[in-house]
Amino acid sequence: MNKGLKICGISDIKSLDYILSHPYPPKFVGFITNYKKSKRFVNYETLKKLLKTNKRNVNFTSVLVSPNDEILEKIKDFNFDYYQLYDVDPERTAKIKLKYKIKIITAITVSNKDDVNKFKDYSEISDIILFDSKGYHKSESFDHRLLDDLPNNLNKMIAGNIQIDDITKLKNKDFMIDLSGSLENENGEKDINKINKLLNLFQKYEN
Predict the structure, then answer these.
(1) CA-CA-CA-CA torsion for 150, 155, 159, 165, nearest 10 degrees?
(2) What is the mean pLDDT of residues 142-162?
(3) pLDDT recorded at residue 172
(4) CATH of domain 5-206
């Protein structure tokens, strides 16, 4: 049974309002906070405006790649529930979690089994372990079968170019699912119709 859904890469108020007002909203919404190479990057002023909303029961997640102290200080009072950290070692992850009193999603990028096993370094620190592709902003895939031997009690999430129709194949897996690129149109903008299809489909299989 899937444990929840995350829609990542939200950068405009129209998409955010639609998601938050949907009858079946996701568990998480992610915002690309400091990775400027991503077309989904949200600058500081826009992010501040987006987060001034009633998020209802949705967890707002700041996606951060090797964040420095400057960006962490800038966003420390923002309305985030989680920091999703890429390329942050366990020691610094623990320090960030303690200092900012924030829940942590540690993102591990995967191409082989050795990558997957890095979760052991974070399992006592992070609230969720996200297994993603090496593509970062490129919406690349990886072989999800590499995750088959993960412990059942690990609070885990998967990403990596997951398509809407993949939900039916993943319905019996005990992890959260993270989608972004598959919810966009040819211009790279979030597509309301695709978001609606995803949320309705996920609700169907969740129940």
Answers:
(1) 90
(2) 91
(3) 62
(4) 3.20.20.70
Q: Measuring CA to CA, which residue among 31, 36, 38 is closest to residue 10?
A: 31
As a whole number of angstroms, the distance between CA 132 and CA 157 comes to 9
76: tokens are 């420390």
With CA atoms as reference, report the closest residue to 78 among 42, 35, 124, 109: 42
- Token pair, residue 8, equals 């990542």
Residues 6 or more apart whose Cβ sits within 8 Å of residue 50: 10, 11, 12, 13, 16, 31, 42
**Residue that is written with structure tokens 């007002």 in the block:** 21
Please, are residues 95 and 126 in contact by the beta-carbon 8 Å criterion?
no
Going from N- to C-terminal start, the domains of the chain cover 5-206
- Measured from the Cβ of residue 179, the count of other Cβ atoms closer than 10 Å reads 27
- Integer Rg of the chain from CA: 16
β strands within 58-155, DSSP E: 59-65, 82-86, 103-109, 128-132
CB 135 within 8 A of CB 145: no
- Tell me the pLDDT tens digit for each residue of 46-57: 999 999 999 999
Q: How confident is the model at residue 143 (pLDDT cuts 50, 70, 90)?
A: confident
**What pLDDT sits at residue 29?**
98
Say if CB 202 and CB 5 are below 8 A apart: yes
